[in-house]
Amino acid sequence: MSDFSGIWIPLITPFADGAVDHAALRALVRRYAEAGVAGLVALGTTGEPATLDAAEQDAVLATILDAAHAAASATPQRRALPVLAGVSGNHTASMRARIEQLNPLPIAGVLIAAPYYTRPAQTGIVGHFGALADASAHPVVLYDIPQRTGVRLELDTLLTLAAHPRIQAIKDCAGSLETTLALILDGRLQVLAGEDLAIFSTLCLGGSGAIAASAHWRPERFVALHRALTDGRLAEGRRIFQALVPQIQLAFAEPNPAPVKALLAAEGWVRNELRMPMTRASDALSKQLTALAGLDFHASPA
Question: EC number(s) in its UniProt entry (predicted)?
Answer without folding.
Answer: 4.3.3.7
